[in-house]
Each structure stands twice: as C-alpha cells, then as structure tokens.
Amino acid sequence: MNRIDELRKQMLRKAKEDTSVRLSAKDIHVIKAVNVLEDLDSVFNLLAEQIIEWYGSYFPELWREVDNNEKYLRLVYNLGSRDNYSADKVKEYLGDDERASAIEKLAKESFGGKLNETAMKEVQLLALNALNIKEEREFLMNFLEKEMTMMMPNFSRIATTVVAAKIIAKLGSSERVAFVPASTLQVIGAEKALFRHLKKKARPPKHGYIFQHPLVKAAPKQKRGKIARALAGKMAIAAKQDYFGSKEGVEALEKQLNTRVNQINAGKDKNDKMDQTRGKRY
C-alpha cells in the first residue's frame, strides 16, 4: 500500500510539473493576448455603432463628414453639444480646416432632435469608455509585437504580428506551427469553407488568416490565391528557422517573397499558361 501511495504522489508531482511548464510557456501569453485583441475590436466596434446611432439622433449630419469611428467618438466626448462645434475646436481633433468649417455649419443648421443633459453625459461617458478600449488595444498590440519578436521573430516578420499570433492560437503552440506544411498555413482560419469543399464539393478556400496580410489583401481578387500560396511557403520556412534556431536572416525570404509577388501582379508568372490550359482559376 505504501508503494502505491508513493507512486501516486510521484505521478501527481510529475503532472503538476508538466502543467506548470505548459502554463509558463510564452505561447500561452501570445494566444491569450491575440484572443483578447479580437474581443477588444468587437467590443469597440459594437460600442461605436451604438453611440453613433444614439448621438446621430441629435446630430445626424456629423457622420457624413466624419466616417472614422475613433475621430467621431473624440468629437462626441470632447464637444458634446452642437453649440460647441466651432471650426477651431473641431479642427483640434480632425486637423482639417475645410471639414471643420463644414461641420460648424452643419451643427448650426442641424435638423436633429433634442438631447437632455443627462442623456448627453451618458453618451459622452460611453464614448470615453470606447476610446479607452481603443487605447488598451494599442497597449496590447505593443505587448504582442514584443512577445512575437522574442518568440518567433522571422515568422512574425513574414506573416505580420497579428496573423502569426492568430495562427499560433489556432494550432495551439509555436512547435505545431513549425511542423505543419505550407498548404495548411495557407488555409488556417478557413475551416468552414474547407469543410464545405470536402462535404458539398464547393470551391476550396484560397486563404484563411493570411488574407489579413497586406500583400494578399491589397492584391486583385484573381491573384490572391497565388500570392497566398507564395506567402504561406515563406511563412513555413520562417517558422522552421525560428523553431530550430537557424541563424539565417529573414531578409532573403522577404526579398524572394516580394520578387514572387511582383511577378504575379505583373502577370509574368511562369504557371499562368499552364493554369489557363487546365481551365483553373486561382
């Protein structure tokens, strides 16, 4: 019986040690941070939408001139009443003389309803909370960039910080990222579309999270698939460099990627004729 108790204690001790090591990994902090980042974006957008709708009943013309949520909220919080919308005050937050003058005129001629003092304070307080959320997002983004730079510098530089962190969060660890093929990295985040392809024979997804990468997002629709594939290939190499401690710099990968993207955008892709012959669209 004593041997069984001793074995049980050893197993519990080992389990605690393993759990402690797992929870101390930097992966955990990156995963939590990027998940919170997405939640902050959702909360900010939801709050901004509600504030714009509420304040719009009082000053409906403002949204025509200020279509940026953050700038709109700063005007609401700092100025509030339409009587405060002088060109000089508006310019402090927009930095645009022409728009500031237009907004001053709109405020004087507005056909919006009334908003009592209590309601105005509530709207301004909501605007302040939304702006605080936006500021917290910036702090969290700085933290995420520092963590990713220390943990997977090459991968985060090729993929961008947010895309790299989202892929780590989806796969569960940086180790798994290093061992998945480029084709998997390309469609991580597009699982629903992939299942539709497998079950209902719909068209396969071209990209998942990497659609948020500037190179893919800015590309013409018909070229995104090829650019996503090229990007995923370089991301896979960068992830392996980080995991296995390669001393090779990421500059060569960036140069190769940019060259490949330029070829695709310029229509000089050597596979174009083959794709047209097969009748495939990428």
Layout: helices, strands, pairs:
Blueprint: H1 2-24, H2 26-56, H3 62-65, H4 69-79, H5 87-94, H6 97-109, H7 117-151, H8 153-159, H9 161-171, H10 174-179, H11 182-187, H12 191-200, H13 214-217, H14 224-243, H15 251-265, H16 272-278
Q: If you had to describe this structure to a student in words, what would you say it looks like?
A:
There is one protein chain. With 282 residues, this protein is mostly helical. The protein folds into two domains: 26-144, Orthogonal Bundle (Helix Hairpins); 152-278, Serum Albumin, Chain A, Domain 1 (Orthogonal Bundle). Helices cover 75% and strands 0% of the residues. The chain contains 16 helices and no strands. It has helices at residues 2-24, 26-56, 62-65, 69-79, 87-94, 97-109, 117-151, 153-159, 161-171, 174-179, 182-187, 191-200, 214-217, 224-243, 251-265, 272-278. Helix 2 (26-56) crosses helix 9. The longest helix is centred in the middle third of the chain and has 35 residues, at 117-151. The radius of gyration is 26 Å and the shape is extended.
Radius of gyration, whole Å:
26 Å
Number of domains: 2
- Class derived from helix and strand content: mainly alpha
CATH architecture of the largest domain: Orthogonal Bundle
Give the class-level CATH name of the largest domain. Answer: Mainly Alpha
Mean pLDDT: 86
Per CATH, the superfamily of the largest domain is: Nop domain
Distance linking N and C termini: 67 Å
One letter per element, helices H and strands E, the order comes to HHHHHHHHHHHHHHHH
How is the main sheet built?
none
Percent range of helical residues: over 70%
